[in-house]
Amino acid sequence: MIQLNNVSFATSNTGSGAVKLATDPAALDSFENALSEAVSQTLQKFGINPNSVNISIAPAATPASTDTPAAAGHSTNSSPAPTPASVSSLAPFMGNSSSSNAASTPSASSTPQPQSPTPAIDPVRSFNETYWAKQPSAVQQLQSIEDPGERSLMASQLASEGYKIDVPIMAWGWDPSQVTSLRQSYGYTWVPSALQNPIAVAPGLSVPGMQDYDPNNAPAGSIAV
User: Fold this and answer.
1) More exposed terminus of the chain, fewer Cβ within 10 Å: N or C?
2) Where do the H-state alpha helices sit in the chain?
3) Could you tell me if 190 and 220 are in contact, meaning their C-beta atoms sit under 8 angstroms apart?
4) Cα–Cα dist 141/213, whole Å
């Protein structure tokens, strides 16, 4: 049977260091015999003569204790402190913490500022303003007269002075954009001004004995559409 040497007392780690535990000699002899028999049987299975082997069992070196409580006031966390790179990688998950990296906070100058919406252009209003701006200053006065009778009277006076007066718009106060759009939809390229004869036949029609509308030859003094 194999011979065991240097079998020592068992040790245990405590908060103050390693301490030997007392062992009963009879129990220790029984343990040695059982261990020697088990090792001998294992060696014989591999074809090794147990009597030619001498095994010495000594206590292993006690590693640095990791169970010793830390001194009061010191952290027991053994994880390494995060590096600057690891801290910055956590910045997106830190919310608006005051301890987050200042470099990750966008400056006020780089933050997109809301822009005022561009006011939409009213095509009808733009057309009407352009229409009146093209008229002589004397005719433009008709635009500011609210009373229909006074407006028609002044329009007749201007017509007698030789100004081109578009009756529905200038004398009656109709909307220039709507009147012009309606005329174009019926095929008018010109209309008579005040004091001129009215159109007898609408564009595209023909009536025996009446003069057809000629879109290509506007009479002198008429108003272009």
Assistant:
1) N
2) 25-45, 84-90, 123-133, 137-140, 148-160, 176-185
3) no
4) 32
